[in-house]
Amino acid sequence: MKLSYEWLSEYLDLNIEPKDLAEKIERTAVEVDSVKRLDYKLKKIVVGHTLEVEMHPDSDHLHIVQVDVGEEEPIQIVCGAPNIAADQDVIVAMHGSRIKDNVKIKRSKMRGVPSNGMICALQEIGFDDAVVPKDYVDGIYVFPADSGVEPGDSVMEALGMDDDVIDTDITPNRGDMFSMNGNATEIGAILNEDVTFESIVPSDSDQSDQDSNEQISVKVSDPVFAPVYKMKVINNLTVEDSPFWLQKRLMKAGIRPINNLVDVTNYIMLKYGQPLHAFDYDQLPEKTITVDKAGENVKFTTLDGEERDLRADDLLIKSGDVPVALAGVMGGMDSEISDGTKTVALEAAIFDPILVRKTARYHVLHSEAATRFERGIDFSSIDNALDEAATMMAQLGNGQISQNTVVGNEVIPEEKQIKISLVRINKVLGTELSADEVGDIFDRLGFEYDLDEVNGNFNVVAPLRRWDISIEADLLEEIARIYGYDNLPSTLPVGPTTIGSLTDTQKIIRDSRTTLEGLGLNQAMSYGLTTIDKARHFIMADGETVKVDWPMTKDHEALRMSLISGLLDDIAYNEARSVDNIALYEQGRVFKKAGDNVQPTEIEHIAGAITGSLIDSSWINKDEKVDFYQMKGVVDQYLQNLNLNGAVQYRATDQYPEMHPGRTANIFIDDQYIGFVGQVHPETQKAYKISETYVFELNLSTLIAQPKVRQHYEMISKFPSISRDMALLVDEDVTNQNILDVINSSKQKFLVNINLFDVYNGSHLPSGKKSLGYQLTYQDSKATLQEEVVNQEFESLVEQLKTELGVTIR
């Protein structure tokens, strides 16, 4: 919230610099984003009064303006604003002045005509476009008649730009600080100063003989929807611009002035933290207001002009059966205040914060009102806010307030009573506070209390404006922050110390990252939330999709069940920016729900995706596109580094719709499924807008649980090795794995390496046959191998291959 130092000074006797005050707020209450002045670096900007306005002889839109700036002679300025006219009080940047962004204004000629300055719009001197009154958004600003400005006056002072604005970031538990009154109370407690509030109450002249209850009735279908709902009717109003002081106050708070009636509701919201809504009474279809849920198939056009399809649970304000407002969020177009409004039905309510938050999030309508309703409203201030708003409307709009208040519902919660002892306070905070010191803190906070002086027990009553105070711990926090966190004694922790270390699981996860990065892959981190459709892509095990009840966007509706979809999104992002060679991996959790379990199961996975080439082309290396076997090699090396106590096997599969059926394999360790590797299906690639991509995904939780071979050093043999090559003619359905299984099962004492160096399938071979070429390496670590020993083992292996697979030696 934007806090005006000038406005705070009306409640408190502030003898502290704004930056120092901001530091105290940040140390004690809530975070402060910034302390700013709108006149920062502005120079020589004054009020000018336009005397004569003539068209430029060489332009159809420029004007030559004679301006009185409080000097002996008027100055001449060429101005292109469409709303420039004679007899206006305007903003003039003199020669040598500085405007927004430190732009310097100099004398110049505009199409041959001298110009001695610049007539400015509000945006040009630092105001945000969103707060500029609509009449002046596309032109220069004209001071209203009640501004009281004179030629030569400082514009910064006239517009209140010399005021310091403290921008606070309110935490969800401190909704009371979403108002000037709440902030003044808090700052008064921090500075130990008395706070003086001023409230406006209606006088006899502000009221008519009419009765609000005869003009309108209110019904709340369920007290939970609106614990408090009240209305007043103000008659015979005139809609016009707000007084200058009110417009300035709203603009500094970041709100655009609209008219005297709407501005009053925004002003009261800032002052009391109580959102109000003003309905054009004559535009209400019926004079019966109902607070109820929308029901099925309801459409409603909000004040921003958007037609919205409402959910059945959205809370509505209805006139008869016609929706006129989204309760606590935004009003409707049909009943908004317009220039012709004569009678206003003014609403002050407290709505169910959960319903308001759900509606605001679903329809992406995070209004100032919704923000306050979500965090809570002060039940004790609603009558003052409603009375003051009605009085201001009557006074600024020359109208009259109908007597009495229409009450649809009023359930005021009881003030919470909390017991706490002085011994407990000092024990928890480590202090030696006396009962008088603690009592003084409660007095500063405005908390009523009774003290049992015998045993030092406090019975504290938390006021309704502090709905965040409910338990002993809350009081301890209040005492600590007002006493000052810096004043609390510092102590070192005591007790036995332990040496920190990583668990086995953490070590494997870190080693996994190191291995994949060593193989040329870069780590990626994707969102755990994705679309419902993508959540079910590349899933390794059946399970229900876990949907988010209130997603922030349509792209984040469900928890992911695979890591690959996020990696493909990353590849698409990079390829869209002309990056061709991409190699990524991600280690993270996937989620699935089984049966009636409320919480989803979280499983650690690791996945990779490569497109293009792993090695960039250079004068010595040519670009080589990744293929299935290169990706399989990455997985092989990774699994080998894990030192698993089991045989790794790859089996072709077509079970994944998103994967190429002829280039995908499931991965097993001793018949236990751990993941898959392969090429993404061309149709899936097209959907993700990516080029040919190869991926893998492994269940890291299963790999962590797998037994490992204890690593030990094996001395490298100093004796020479002997190689034997063989070419095998086999049936086409015989795989490399089949050959390896036979070789590994044979009694080969000195066989240390098997390398498949050739695969041939051509016209020179019989139909249904293929040729596989292997190189077998033999070595003895203790002695030089004899030729006869190698020949004997080799011949034994060949015979076993012939027997079990029916191979033919070529």
Automatic annotation (TrEMBL):
GO terms, molecular function: ATP binding; catalytic activity, acting on a protein; magnesium ion binding; phenylalanine-tRNA ligase activity; transferase activity; tRNA binding
InterPro entries registered for this protein in UniProt: aa-tRNA-synth_II/BPL/LPL, B3/B4_tRNA-bd, DNA-bd_dom_put_sf, Fdx_antiC-bd, Fdx_antiC-bd_sf, NA-bd_OB-fold, Phe-tRNA-ligase_IIc_bsu, Phe-tRNA-ligase_IIc_bsu_bact
Highest taxon, organism lineage: Bacteria
Family annotation (Pfam families): B3_4, B5, FDX-ACB, tRNA_bind, tRNA_synthFbeta
B5 domain location: 413-490
GO BP annotations, alphabetical order: phenylalanyl-tRNA aminoacylation
EC class of the enzyme, as a word: ligase
Reaction(s) catalysed by this chain's protein: tRNA(Phe) + L-phenylalanine + ATP = L-phenylalanyl-tRNA(Phe) + AMP + diphosphate + H(+)
Cell location: Cytoplasm
Residue ranges annotated for the TRNA-binding domain, each copy included: 39-156
Cofactor(s) listed in the protein's UniProt record: Mg(2+)
Protein biosynthesis listed as a keyword: yes
Cofactor info, note text: Binds 2 magnesium ions per tetramer.
EC number: 6.1.1.20
UniProt key word Transcription: no
Residues where Mg(2+) binds: D468, D474, E477, E478
Cleaved signal peptide residues: none
Annotated FDX-ACB domain residues: 717-810
Entry's Gene Ontology cellular component terms: phenylalanine-tRNA ligase complex
Quaternary structure, from the entry: Tetramer of two alpha and two beta subunits.
Similarity comment: family membership: Belongs to the phenylalanyl-tRNA synthetase beta subunit family. Type 1 subfamily.
Protein name (database record): Phenylalanine--tRNA ligase beta subunit
Name of encoding gene: pheT
